[in-house]
Design brief:
Length: 442
């Protein structure tokens, strides 16, 4: 992930302009997998071109699928009707949770032999709850190194569908997403997935259900913990919708919306708006609570300045379980707010690209913020005055976490220039981030 030099930004005063967002990572990877599993050809438009979606594309190609990148972010996938042509493969998943978890489940339904591994950090990100769910229907999965973590080996096995499959929902919603997409392939009878405990990151489940519906499978949710998968009526479970346009990425939008709030604005993001299926659009509401002016249309959102009488944003206390990714942006916006900002229910930050609570706390302190962290929360208080801001000569570390790099670009609106180390980690979801950022700031 290294290669690009560290960058120094700012101090910046103004943000103004508009940005066309790259495609949503969450929608892109779900659409690629569902297109691969369906019958027919799917033309995916505005597909995200980034590390996370490249590992998914490469894995599908290794599995024998035809996945063809065309000009203008169009990708054409020839579906395999549910059975991957290749029955034995060793797949590298980088650090893409949206690739390894759903693919593991789809591969466990195949009756072939597969190995899935990733970068070192991926081998510290849990997968046990998903493996436990898959074992309930007879999948044979072994851990190669540490119990509960990739790399994993899937062995050929007979899948025996059960009427209820249980999965924990409080570590990552991606385990439920993975089961939801894979179990229809083998559902000779209806299956109920029962979520044990709290279901975090719930809006991502809604993305999963909406995309499955586009590919012909409708899942009922009679209550918050139950998901009813219909019995399959033929071997061709998923059917290509022909074309599918990927919305702009709402998490990527958060950095630019934040710029509108801290840099006078207006800044407009194009590609997500009132019609979005992504939960992270609620980030704009959080900025509104902090005092920013928000307006939106079907597929755009705009933020300009602050409506508070003192011209400053105000700190807020907010439950972030539904916006785990965009919540990181709030932690840095807090540097420009009066009063503390408390982000609650963010325990999952600790098991993502890095321990994001620890990393965020450490780097915010480097610029002079007062920070308190707990197992599942963070409180950020801005430096009291310009003199209390600091500019660490060693720079802000990014921990190979794209969101750390993107979030901390906003801190260049403080009184000092800011060095960001290893900025190239943005390639995970937004390779052109710093070029787009430069277009709207001065
Ligand atoms: O399903 C998805 O597309 C995602 C779910 C979320 O993860 P968790 O469910 O692990 O919180 C989110 O953080 C991740 O970036 C994408
Ligand atoms: C948590 C994230 O990624 P992943 O899909 O790898 O879980 C993220 O993009 O913030």
């Amino acid at each position: 992930m290294s290669g690009l030099p560290d960058i120094t930004i700012g101090p910046l005063k103004r943000a103004q302009g508009s940005i066309v967002l790259p495609g949503s990572k969450s929608i892109s990877n779900r659409a690629l997998l569902l297109a691969a599993l369906s019958t027919g050809t799917t033309t995916l438009k505005n597909l995200l071109d980034a590390d996370d979606t490249q590992v998914m594309r490469n894995a599908l190609r290794q599995l024998g699928l035809s996945v063809t990148d065309k000009a203008d972010k169009v990708c054409v996938v020839e579906g395999c009707g549910g059975k991957f042509p290749v029955r034995d493969a060793d797949l590298f998943m980088g650090n893409a949770g949206t690739a390894i978890r759903p693919l593991t489940a789809a591969l466990a339904m195949q009756g072939g032999q597969y190995r899935l591994s990733g970068v070192a950090r991926m081998h510290e990100r849990p997968i046990r709850d998903l493996v436990d769910g898959l074992r309930q229907v007879g999948a044979k999965i072994e851990y190669e190194m540490q119990e509960g973590y990739p790399p994993i080996k899937i062995l050929a096995s007979d899948i025996q569908i059960k009427d209820v499959v249980k999965v924990r929902g409080d570590v990552s919603s991606q385990f439920l997403t993975a089961l939801l997409m894979a179990l229809p392939l083998v559902a000779n009878e209806p299956v109920r997935i029962e979520v044990i405990g709290e279901l975090i990151s719930r809006p991502y489940i809604d993305i999963t259900l909406k995309l499955m519906a586009r590919f012909g499978i409708n899942v009922d949710c009679p209550d918050t913990q139950s998901f009813l998968i219909p019995a399959k009526t033929s071997d061709a479970v998923y059917k290509s919708p022909g074309q599918l346009s990927v919305e702009g990425d709402a998490s990527s939008a958060s950095y630019f919306l934040a710029l509108g709030a801290i840099g006078v604005g207006p800044v407009r993001v194009l590609g997500v708006g009132n019609n979005s299926i992504q939960g992270d659009v609620a980030f704009a509401d959080a900025l509104g609570l902090m005092g920013a002016n928000i307006s939106a249309g079907e597929d755009w959102i705009e933020v300009s300045g602050v409506k508070n009488a003192n011209g400053k944003l105000n700190g807020i206390t907010i439950d972030c379980t539904e916006i785990p990714d965009a919540a990181m942006t709030l932690a840095v916006v807090a540097l420009f707010a009066e009063g503390p900002t408390r982000l609650n229910n963010i325990a999952s930050w600790r098991i993502k690209e890095t321990d994001r609570i620890a990393a965020m706390a450490k780097e915010l302190k480097k610029v002079g913020a007062i920070v308190e962290e707990g197992a599942d929360y963070i409180v950020v208080q801005a430096p009291a005055s310009n003199n209390d801001w600091s500019s660490p000569s060693s720079g802000i570390d990014t921990y190979d976490d794209h969101r750390m790099a993107m979030c901390f670009s906003l801190a260049a609106f403080g009184p000092n220039a800011l060095k960001i180390n290893d900025p190239n980690c943005v390639a995970k979801t937004f390779p052109t981030y710093f070029a787009e950022f430069a277009k709207v700031v001065s």
